[in-house]
Amino acid sequence: MTHRFPALTSEQKKELSDIAQRIVANGKGILAADESVGTMGNRLQRIKVENTEENRRQFREILFTVDNSINQSIGGVILFHETLYQKDSQGKLFRNILKEKGIVVGIKLDQGGAPLAGTNKETTIQGLDGLSERCAQYKKDGVDFGKWRAVLRIDNQCPSHLAIQENANALARYASICQQNGLVPIVEPEVIPDGDHDLEHCQYVTEKVLAAVYKALNDHHVYLEGTLLKPNMVTAGHACTKKYTPEQVAMATVTALHRTVPAAVPGICFLSGGMSEEDATLNLNAINLCPLPKPWKLSFSYGRALQASALAAWGGKAANKKATQEAFMKRALANCQAAKGQYVHTGSSGAASTQSLFTACYTY
Ligand SMILES: O=P(O)(O)OC[C@@]1(O)O[C@H](CO)[C@@H](O)[C@@H]1O
To answer: What family does this belong to (predicted)?
Structure first.
C-alpha cells in the first residue's frame, strides 16, 4: 500500500502547498509568459515586429519591470527556458526581478506534441525523458513551479479514450516528477475551443477529461495540495452559432469542476484559450459569483488575455514602455478583481481588449 512508501516527506509537502497557496492568495493569478519561440513569433508578426531573441527580451523586460504593485494581482509568472536566463538592460536576471517583487517563478516543461497513431490527428505531449534532471536544475535556478499543457480536441471521435488516458497519464507522471524535485506542478489539460459544438458538449467532454486526470494523479500518488489546475473554461466551440452569457459559461464550468476536482486542490487558474481580454475577465468574474460550492480559489493563468493590449501598445517601440505597462497593469488588476468576483465592467476598454484572440488548432 502507498502509505508504506510515502512519495514525499511532510517537509516536502509543506513546501509544495505553501508555494501553491502563495501563487493564488488574495485574488492573485498567473501571467503565462511562457510562449515558445514559434508562438511568440506569431504574436510579434501581428504587430510587425521581427521575432528575434532581443525583441522577445525587450517586450518581456517591459512586463517584468512594471511597478512593484503588480504583486497585488500577479502571484506567479510562467517563463520559457530562454527567458529564465535573460537579463534586463541593467544586467539583472529577470527571475531575480520577479522574485524581488515577491512573485513566484515558474517554467514551461512540456516539449510539444507527438501524434497518436490510429486517431483522428490527436496528440500526446513529449518531455518526460530527462524531466527529473531538468526540474532539479530549474529548482537550483530559482524556479518553484512547472507547467505542462496537454491538448485535447472536440471533433468526430475526439477526444478518443486513448487521447484522454494517455494525456492524463503523462500529466500525472510529469506532476509526480515535479513534486519530487520541489516544483509545484500546474496541470493543464486544455480542451481547445476549435469546433462548432455547444456548451453542453464542452461540459461533457471537460468532465470526462478532468475525471481521468484526477484518477491518474491519484494513481501516481500526486499530492493534490501541492498542485494547481489550469483548465479551459467550459465554453461553446468557436464556430458554434449559439451564444452563451458569462453566467451560463460560469454555471457549466463550475458544475464540471465541482463534479471532478477534489477540494484538496488549492487553486484552479484558467487559461484564456483565445477569448478576448474582456471576455476572459467577465467569465472569470461570473465564475466567482456562481452560486455553487467552490472549495478552491478560482483564478487566472492567462497568456493572450493578459498580454494582447500590452503587445498592441508596445508595437516594438521602447518609447511606448509606459503605455505598455499601463495596459498590462490594467488587465492584471481587472483579473484580480474578477478572481474575487468584484470586477465591474466600465465600458471604457480599449479596442484591443475586446478582440477575439482565437487561433485555430493552437497546439503549442
Ligand atoms: O490560452 P492562453 O491564456 O493564451 O495561454 C495558455 C497557455 O497555456 O498556452 C500557451 C501555449 O502553450 C502558453 O503560452 C500559455 O501558458
So the answer is: Belongs to the class I fructose-bisphosphate aldolase family.
Alpha-carbon distance of 290 to 124, in angstroms, equals: 33
Query: Which structural domain, as residue segments, surrounds residue 215?
Result: 10-340
Residue with cell 538592460: 89
How confident is the model at residue 4, as a pLDDT?
A: 83
Residue 347 lies in a domain: no
Alpha-carbon span 34 to 167, nearest angstrom: 20
pLDDT(228) > 90 = yes
The residue nearest atom 9 of ligand 1, judged by CA position, is: 303
User: Is residue 27 one of the residues assigned to a domain?
Assistant: yes
Average pLDDT of the residues of the chain: 96
pLDDT (average), residues 203-220: 98
1 occurs within a structural domain: no
| Cα distance between residue 42 and residue 32, in whole Å | 16
| Residue 89: strand, helix, or coil | coil
Judged against a pLDDT cut of 80, whether residue 352 lies above it is answered with: no
Query: How sure is the predictor about 345, in pLDDT bands with cuts at 50, 70 and 90?
Result: confident
How far does the centroid of ligand 1 lie from the alpha carbon of residue 107, in Å? Answer: 12
pLDDT above 70 for 47: yes
243 noted as active-site residue: no
CATH number at residue 73: 3.20.20.70
Residue 272 alpha carbon, nearest atom of ligand 1 = 3
Catalytic residue among 28, 108, 147, 230: 230
CA of 270 to the centre of ligand 1 (A): 10
Q: Give the pLDDT band (50/70/90) at residue 132.
A: very high
Mean pLDDT throughout 184-204? 98
Q: Which atom of ligand 1 is nearest to the CA of 33?
A: 14
> Which DSSP string do the residues of 51-63 spell out, in sequence order?
--HHHHHHHHHHH
Question: At a CB cut-off of 8 Å and minimum separation 6, what does 49 contact?
Answer: 55, 315, 316
Number of domains observed in the structure of the chain: 1
271 alpha carbon – ligand 1 mean position (Å): 6
Give the separation between CA 141 and CA 68, rounded to whole angstroms.
22
Consecutive H or E run containing 20 = helix 10-23
**Which atom of ligand 1 is found nearest the CA of 34?**
14
